Amino acid sequence: MIIDTTEIQTINSFYTSEFLKEVYGLIWIVPILTLILGITMGVLVIVWLEREISAAIQQRIGPEYAGPLGILQAIADGTKLLFKEDLLPSRGDIRLFSVGPSIAVISILLSYLVIPFGYRLVLADLSIGVFLWIAISSIAPIGLLMSGYGSNNKYSFLGGLRAAAQSISYEIPLTLCVLSISLLSNSSSTVDIVEAQSKYGFWGWNLWRQPIGFIVFLISSLAECERLPFDLPEAEEELVAGYQTEYSGIKYGLFYLASYLNLLVSSLFVTVLYLGGWNLPIPYISISELFGIKKIASIFGMTMGILITLTKAYLFLFISITTRWTLPRMRMDQLLNLGWKFLLPISLGNLLLTTSSQLLSL
Questions:
Q1: pLDDT (tens digit, 9 = 90+) per residue, 224-280?
Q2: Reduced to 3 states, what is the DSSP secondary structure of residue 345?
Q3: 8 A C-beta contact, residue 156 and residue 147
Q4: How far is the C-alpha of 146 from the C-alpha of 101, rounded, in Å?
Q5: How far apart are CA 103 and CA 108, in angstroms?
């Protein structure tokens, strides 16, 4: 039996290409798993920080028994919710009731794809990165509305309707602020926006170039996260627990997780859009750079970029946590009036000013 050598080469190249495809697929899993692990650790730190800061503001003792300084309290709460019974409403829509929390969590997790944690440390550097985040984040209220409707409970349904109304009201000013930043940076890519701010150092941050947009973005992002004073969808004095009323066990834990994931996403986008991202206004020189060790210098630069980004993000988190215990909850009419009658005209005027300045500079 005679076998042609070209056939053997073709077979070998086929198997090699298939093997390389499998290896490439496995390599892609590593950064995704790393990002998920980092997000999980970030959420645990946020929960611990919120309890400690809230305890300090209220002059009481925070978590102290679960682990050193109570740092394992969030893990203990998650484990408790995991083993609790998952109750279902007898007359509710079970499909909507079950799918709602998953949609809320998955839509927020997808937003992390376009967040740069350092130079070349982003999973997907898309040309429409910031607008992809806005589009994906608008899916989360649909999950909340499904949860409220599927619960067959008037308090839950009212909470879901409030979540949808609140999201629509504050998504428009948020988008107009992001559009102003895109005009200033001549790009909608998150990496390009950070690099555009690095040209002039500390004074090149969009915080100084867009102070009105920064305030509007700050208020709108707090409203999107449903944090006090904007937590109307789950106001306990009026709606028991809003769209979460009928939930228990792991599904209730998913809502709890989604709120902190959304808060972390908003903090990171404030850092990327207004605070210069991974760039430090103070120049620093590492020991590896002094001795000319390029590999160690690049690793040190990556580590510093991640630390700088997270430090700026957690600074915003501190502001949002202290706001929770400082301002009283708004009424629903006040919340909608603030969004439609104040923030929308201000953000639209800011966009017109930015557009005019960009046209005059041409």
A1: 888 878 887 776 666 667 788 888 888 888 888 888 899 999 999 999 999 988 887
A2: helix
A3: yes
A4: 9
A5: 9
Q: In angstroms, rounded to a whole number, what is the distance separating the alpha carbons of residues 255 and 156? A: 13
3-class SS at 87? coil
Count the Cβ atoms, other than its own, within 10 Å of residue 16.
Answer: 10
CB 193 within 8 A of CB 187: yes
Per the document, the length of the chain is 362
Which residues of the chain fall short of a pLDDT of 70? 1-28, 235-240, 282-298
Alpha helices (H) along the chain: 5-57, 73-82, 94-109, 129-137, 140-150, 154-185, 190-197, 206-209, 211-224, 236-239, 249-274, 287-290, 294-324, 332-337, 344-360
Predicted model pTM: 0.86
Whole-angstrom Cα distance, residue 331 to residue 145?
A: 20
Both tokens assigned to 263: 């808060």
Q: What is the C-alpha to C-alpha distance for residues 332 and 100, in angstroms, rounded to an integer?
A: 23
Three-class SS of residue 54? helix
Distance, CA of 320 to CA of 57 (rounded, Å): 13
CA–CA distances in Å: residue 285 to residues 117, 195, 234, 306: 20, 19, 49, 16
Give the single-character DSSP code of 100: H
Indicate the SS3 state at residue 151: coil
The torsion angle over the Cα atoms of residues 145, 146, 149 and 151, rounded to 10 degrees, is -120
Query: Residues 6 or more apart from 176 whose CB is under 8 A from it?
Result: 216, 344, 347, 348, 350, 351
112 by Cβ neighbours in 10 Å (0-12 / 13-18 / 19+) ranks as: buried
Give whole-number Cα distances, 38 to 31, 68, 164, 306, in Å: 10, 20, 30, 11
Q: What is the CA radius of gyration of the chain?
A: 24
Longest dimension (CA), the chain: 88
Tens-place pLDDT, residues 68-96? 888 888 888 888 888 888 888 888 888 88
Please state, in angstroms and rounded to a whole number, the distance separating the CA atoms of residues 358 and 362. Answer: 7
- Reading the block at residue 44, the tokens are 């645990």
Rounded CA-CA distance 190/119 in Å is 11
- Looking at residue 287, its pLDDT comes to 46
